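JOB MANIFEST
job_type = single_chain_structure
chain_count = 1
residues = 397
[input]
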Amino acid sequence: MSQAENERLAKMPAATDLYQIDSLLSEEELLVRDTVRRFVAERVKPQIAEHFEAGTFPQELVPEMAELGLLGMHLEGYGCAGMSAVCYGLACQELEAGDSGLRSFVSVQGSLAMYPISAFGSEEQKQRWLPGMARGEIIGCFGLTEPDYGSDAAHLTTSARRDGDVYILNGTKLWITNGSIAHVAIVWARAEDGVRGFLVERDTPGFTTSTISHKLSLRASVTSELHFADCRVPVANLLPNVRGMRGPLSCLNEARYGIAWGVNGAARTCYETALTYARERLQFQRPIASFQLVQQKLVVMVTELVKAELLALQLGRLKDSGRLHPVQISLAKRNNVREALQTAREARNILGANGITLEYPISRHMNNLESVFTYEGTDDIHTLIIGQAITGENAFA
């Protein structure tokens, strides 16, 4: 290769930031990203494969994530960091570069448990719960999905009947992240005046949880069922400032926003692993990176990663400026999860048989992304949301 060619290649942008997206980030945003990236590199990646294999959640990391201000970091006051939407997105991206289970924990804690208290709770509820949740001393979960009602959440059957100064809850919630370790559950139930949200404390009589085992995905995360059998919840634990499906759906939009960022971290880890492997792996006396088909796979991966990162960044800018619409969240969640999963599959292909072991992170991310593809709105549901927005026709009916 000529000296001129070497100089030209030396000026090329980095293979992990091919579109120089770093230049679009502020100093604060870069600081948040790099801080979380360092935490993941030092504290998460060295141990997460063992937790995945054992099916355990690294709960010892919760105080450290709280110390970094990651729990409810996009909320204002009550001990929360009050960071921008873009900063929160970048944090999700770096956490999921480690494992979807860590990002899921932070997402559920901040967007699905703390957010409804912040948005719809009384002042007393905010004072009681949010500071401890921001410190990681109180863990929350979000109970909406039911055994017979996932995507069709508007027809949930968990009931809440008023009886004097309590509500009596009956029903079951399924696929609940953090459920078995949560101190408080945000539970959505059908009351006489519509769907309402309740703060159900761990020791409430009639409230029990069971952990879902034998998972092949999100193994380094706690997934549970919540059971309510004549569970008596004080009226004071009703979220007073929301009624109907607007409450849970607004929470889901907060969580979907974080997912649209987070999966880019998983995709980046898979791409970087495949790129490094392809440069080092020799076949036919040459690195496999020199073969056209391998290069083609890597090019598609990095192209989709760049597109997904730009999509997430614009989503964050829209959110920070107050112009975000739920359809835009659906578009980003659908695209970015779909492409991250495809990137993981192609990266596994490049690694061949080595790609199925926990020595490399790719199959772990691929299995996790199968769950992310489904939760917080399946790929099909987001497709129909976008379809209705652009055609004006409701395909759900």
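[summary]
Residues 139 and 318 are 30 Å apart (CA to CA).
Residues 246-391 form a domain with the Butyryl-CoA Dehydrogenase, subunit A; domain 3 fold (CATH 1.20.140.10).
exit_status = 0
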